[in-house]
Design brief:
- It is built from four helices and no strands.
- Helix content is 71%, strand content 0%.
- It is an all-alpha fold.
């Protein structure tokens, strides 16, 4: 017997928050194609550059709470 979307949804909705988040990530990954090696290499280089800048003290980080509040303010037109 074939399971329907509704059946799968009902089962998934009973999972813990952590398991639902993991399942969501896996489902999204399943929609993506094969990674482009050139793009992956470019992202890895950019990450290394940014980490080195942070470690050297050349950048100032912003706490997540502050970034979140700025985004919420923008969404609310403040």
């Amino acid at each position: 017997m074939s399971r329907t979307f509704t059946d799968v949804w009902k089962e998934a909705s009973e999972l813990s928050d952590e398991d639902r988040a993991a399942l969501a990530g896996l489902l999204i990954e399943s929609l993506e194609g094969e990674p482009d090696p050139d793009i992956e290499a470019a992202w890895a280089a950019e990450i290394e550059k940014r980490v080195a800048e942070l470690d050297a003290g050349n950048l100032q980080s912003i706490p997540w709470e502050q970034v979140r509040q700025r985004l919420l303010d923008r969404l609310n037109g403040r």
